[in-house]
From TrEMBL:
Belongs to the LpxC family. InterPro entries: Ribosomal_Su5_D2-typ_SF, UDP-acyl_GlcNac_deAcase, UDP-acyl_GlcNac_deAcase_C, UDP-acyl_N-AcGlcN_deAcase_N. This is UDP-3-O-acyl-N-acetylglucosamine deacetylase. It holds the Pfam family LpxC. Catalyzes the hydrolysis of UDP-3-O-myristoyl-N-acetylglucosamine to form UDP-3-O-myristoylglucosamine and acetate, the committed step in lipid A biosynthesis. It catalyses: a UDP-3-O-[(3R)-3-hydroxyacyl]-N-acetyl-alpha-D-glucosamine + H2O = a UDP-3-O-[(3R)-3-hydroxyacyl]-alpha-D-glucosamine + acetate.
Amino acid sequence: MGTDLRAYQTSLSEIVNLSGIGVHSGDSVSISMLPADPNTGIIFRRIMPDGTMHDFPAVVSQVGATDLCTMLGDPSKVHVSTIEHMMAAFSAIGLDNVIVEVDSHEVPIMDGSSRIFIDAIDEAGLTHFAAKRRYIRVKKTVRAEIGGSWAEFSPYEGTRFEVVIDFESAAIGRQEFKSEVDGDVFRNELSSARTFGFMKDVERLWASGHALGSSLDNSVVIGDDNAVINREGLRFADEFVRHKTLDAVGDLALAGAQFIGTFRSYRGGHRLNATVLKELLADRTAFEIVETPEPRERAYAREFVAIAAQAYAPWDV
């Protein structure tokens, strides 16, 4: 058998440059994704107007707010927000080490999904290192509840998402997405699902300084008649729950490593995703750090071997 490249850490083969609009600020934003050494992890680097730089490791302990998006840093000071769609792309495609330079306080929204990030990474290509990739294997069920919403991790030999949403709006209603999620599933079934919102909320969001860059080019918008007003319609009949699953993939990537287990949520969102992830990582009996061994004759890629947790603690909780 040949070497299983899924067992090894990656980075970009070359620099990726993208630009777009910040969905909340409405400002033009430029980003550069830079190749990084093994064990660097994902770092968002805010480039200030005076040229100074502030680095934010993409780990849940750095999350400063989860109101309308996931933010790293202090909301009242230096921060980088709306990272979840990019983080979902990194996690699903298996990009372990990268420095993302951002010249504004939010990652550009692009088309409201992860698709453009996936395409850009594919064009650049990945480099594999000799360093083994580590995973977080869930050993027991951990649950968090906020109001009538809940989320939990439970043991499972794979990476599975079971996401349920339930809106009063007739345009959405109750939708479910339940599947193992690997790179192929994410590309084909989740990556192009767009963020969404209601026209009735726009004036309130504008008044609070949010959604200034939101448009029909980057969001699915539901009108006052409970109908989707985008001319192209939906990309999937259940695009809403697919986008919620995309968000969960990105938010849970803030563990600092991919997880092995099942994630379930009911009426979840960024806040609940961050809460249950913190609950999992705060309980050292609930998980273990494992790595994928290089396949041997008669061995299989989904065989995992446990290593000491002290050797790798990317979450910094």
